[in-house]
Amino acid sequence: MISHRPTPLLRRAILPLAMAMVFASPVLAQTEAPAAAAAPHVTQAGPASVADLAEGLLGAVVNISTSQRIKGGEGQGTVPLPEVPEGSPFQDFFDEFFKDRQGGGGQRQVQSLGSGFVIDAAEGILVTNNHVIADADEIEVNFSDGSKLKAELVGTDSKTDIAVLKVDPTLKKLKEVHFGDSDRMRIGDWVMAIGNPFGLGGTVTVGIISARNRDIDAGPYDDFIQTDAAINRGNSGGPLFNMYGEVVGINTAIISPSGGSIGIGFSIPAELAVSVVSQLREFGETRRGWLGVRIQPVTDEIAESLGIKEAHGALVSGIIKDGPVDNGLIEVGDVIIRFDGRDIKESRELPLAVAESPVGKAVDVVVIRKGVETTVKVTLGRLEEGEKLAEAEGAQAGEEGGPVATASLLGMTFGELTDEMRDKFGIDPDVSGVVVTEVADGSPAAERGVTAGDVITEIAQESVSTPEDVLDRIAALKEQGRKNALLMLASKTGELRFVTIRMD
């Protein structure tokens, strides 16, 4: 699995200015391009030339320059070293250049470079990546003709890594490009990337769509287009065009052990970007739909145990407290196979489908419950409110944000140990933890003698007090490669025992 955390392999295509200082040279000014470029003839051997197409688009693609003032000091606040490909002829230069500049006092200014593109010339609206402008004190837009304009931030979305900027359109005549239909793009279709690699200015590269629907663990809504069109540091936020000059993706990340392109780049699909950009322009923030469930994949084993012929859909493993379905409409153990007319083949498709739906919309959700398909009508809440609720109550966010009231895992359904649960199972007041309310026949938990009314007090020698604690602890053990989970259980009267439950 590819980590979304900064690693030598998965890299954001953003470039520190110091590297741009070395690699960059004056870029020839571009002449004013025609209002629209005609689509070139495409043969089976690929496009004969993209010169006309590129000429008509270069003027709408910009370089984004940001600066951030940070405090220097002994052991902290130092200017971060730019990553230079191993063996680069400039490696010695960077080592020497920065060696004497670490650990100094006072205030320092860090600059970085990325790419972006104009989508509304009349309003002066541009799109780029959130990580290009994150924490910036100043944002400057550099155009292909050499002119520059200061930009203000309209809104950002860290979950999809999209940011919207605005410049004053009265100061310069702008050229715009438009989003196309990324859903119609097929593996093997030709695409063209334009951006600012290594600070070199408007650079055109051509390739094909290598894959679609890539999940690279960069965020909750990963659905990337993969391309072999060369994307390097500094390309972040730049557009990926189809052969009709329409933006079908926003270039955002690469896989590379060296920092340079090896032909594996990723772009946010236009279909996802359009709705996010629209909300940022209108509200300055996103307003996503929220179903209020925690989910997990449906494996072949789970499908067999639930009596489902084919492993598909999203298994509901938890219901978010005070969420839209915390009323019995959807239950733990349900498998969601269709949302608002959209088939859910894999669990990761559900959060994306829900997030793209308007807040307050009443949608039909088809679930398989105890082997029978059932349709329920759910009115969506707002994801951001669920996340605020989780933060206010000091709980970690679930799949969609919010504290978990009940959950299901390893064949156990468990919930908060409330007074009602104590009365129901006759649990002593001195017992604390998470109460098991149901155990599936033949499940790993049932094999180890776990029964309804048992209370989970510890997992791997760490105490748990909420259903979410249980889910998070089991998830952490799986990430560590553990095959079994050690649980300390309390009986109704408080007698303790250890059980080991298989997690595979």
TrEMBL record:
Its main location: periplasm. The keyword Repeat applies. Its EC number is 3.4.21.107. CDD domains: cpPDZ1_DegP-like (cd10839). Keywords: Hydrolase, Periplasm, Protease, Repeat, Serine protease, Signal, Stress response. Belongs to the peptidase S1C family. It comes from the Bacteria. Coiled coil: none annotated. SMART domains: PDZ. It is found in: Periplasm. Residues 1-29 form the signal peptide. Pfam families: PDZ_2, PDZ_6, Trypsin_2. PANTHER family: PERIPLASMIC SERINE ENDOPROTEASE DEGP-LIKE-RELATED, SERINE PROTEASE FAMILY S1C HTRA-RELATED. The keyword Repressor does not apply. This is Probable periplasmic serine endoprotease DegP-like. It is an enzyme of class 3 (hydrolase). Residues 280-371, 377-504 form the PDZ domain. InterPro entries: PDZ, PDZ_6, PDZ_sf, Pept_S1C_Do, Peptidase_S1_PA, Peptidase_S1C. Gene3D superfamilies: 2.30.42.10, 2.40.10.120.
